[in-house]
Amino acid sequence: MTRKDSIAARFDAARDYDQAARVQRIAAEELARRIARSCAHAAPLRILEIGCGTGFLTLELLRLFPDAHITATDIAPGMLARLAARIPDRERLTPHRMDAEQPDLTGPFDLICSSLAMQWFENRARTLDLLASLLAPGGQMAFATLCAGSFRQWRDAYARAGVTCPVPSYPPLATLHEEWPLSGAGLWQEAEIVDSPASPLEFVRELAAIGASHTDHPPATGSQLRRVLAAAHSNDPFAVSYHIAYGQFRRALWPGVFVTGTDTDVGKTVTAATLVRAWGAAYWKPLQSGTDDAPSDSTTIRALSGIDAARLYPPAATFGASLSPEDAARQAHTRINPADIGLPPHDAARGPLVVEGAGGVFVPIAENYLMIDLMVHLALPVVLVARSQLGTINHTLLSLAALRARGVRVLGVILNGPPEPIGRNAIERHGQVRILAELPPTDPMGPDAVRQLATHIPSWTDVTDSVQ
């Protein structure tokens, strides 16, 4: 019997699942609330649920999205049978036996979700990539899974009894975040659920009742378990902490990158032109300001990169004043509505899309809306442009921390200026980031210079095959 067969058999045998699965119900309801918030403006019509069990999350999804069709999957046929008996509406629900690590569906799905099944994956990163490929452009994944810190009290009881704990080690949030696919932006947040079983022995029985007693490590013998139970009884009342990671990921509408900087005038536009040239990419500047004092960045990009007009998309808004987009709009007696800013229609023939922001990560766009909010919305991985000179370490690490705190995937950093190996090394080590290129000072700046700078840029395939 394979590992997956053993897990499926234990869940099939879990006849008292609904009565014992208190934490699973709470986690599913919380995940549903998070999904509802993220889908407030666009309800999904095609939903794939992974590890549906007896339907805690399924029922919430049916309630939240009455026009959606849900394909509910599980590796345990017994669980699917119970779900089908509970929800017989085949117009809205299709039960389907499937191992998420070997999906046999083609999609596309607007939403792929799973509550407390992901911890059974043998290869999370690979599985997330496979599932992301089933998303429609702009679609999202939403997961709840166990993370580091779970079952702390139970592990302590094993330690006090001098017995090796068979409970698996669960990943920290940082590891989960780095495993998101490169095709979009994702964020993990942690919450703790404290459960209070009637006794340590009842806790063991309830794990078996929900089919969660499978372990990849040798279980405790009878005498060892008695010592563990005795040690656990010393904590009165007995409680068990479940640390739940809630993750949400949105696939980008168009393959590409968002170019931002650690500050203004760090060379974003020249860098963007270099990327366009190196990758045969399209270009879009969503918000352009400062045209009273200089040509627009779109005009500069076309002159430097030689991009044809068909791959140059007009800004969503243009302002004359050399100010932040919010202040430039205010001076023009108008306001920017962030809801009006969306990626241009995808055209694979035009290559990847290079999107250039204005200023740095926290530049204001509108009231309570910053440049980083736009990055989250567009769901493109970021290329961070920084100076190579003194001071770049602090500015770059602060920008990286801000981006990652919002779940924005960082593709890499490009350093502009004379090579500074000490600063580069510090950014790589402390920022845990790839330096995509170091672009040396070039004078005069023009198409020939950009053509030469483009030789420093790794290929689009190289960049997208790497995982930061």
From TrEMBL:
The gene is bioD1. The keyword Nuclease does not apply. InterPro entries: DTB_synth_BioD (IPR004472), Methyltransf_12 (IPR013217), P-loop_NTPase (IPR027417), SAM-dependent_MTases_sf (IPR029063). Its main location: cytoplasm. Catalyzes a mechanistically unusual reaction, the ATP-dependent insertion of CO2 between the N7 and N8 nitrogen atoms of 7,8-diaminopelargonic acid (DAPA, also called 7,8-diammoniononanoate) to form a ureido ring. ATP binds at residues 265-270, 297, 356-359. Residues 48-140 form the Methyltransferase type domain. SUPFAM superfamilies: P-loop containing nucleoside triphosphate hydrolases, S-adenosyl-L-methionine-dependent methyltransferases. It is found in: Cytoplasm. Mg(2+) binds at residues 269, 297, 356. Substrate binds at residue 289. Keywords: ATP-binding, Biotin biosynthesis, Cytoplasm, Ligase, Magnesium, Metal-binding, Nucleotide-binding. Pfam families: AAA_26, Methyltransf_12. One of its GO terms (molecular function) is ATP binding. Pathway: Cofactor biosynthesis; biotin biosynthesis; biotin from 7,8-diaminononanoate: step 1/2. The keyword Ribosomal protein does not apply. It comes from Komagataeibacter saccharivorans. HAMAP family: BioD. One of its GO terms (biological process) is biotin biosynthetic process. This is ATP-dependent dethiobiotin synthetase BioD.
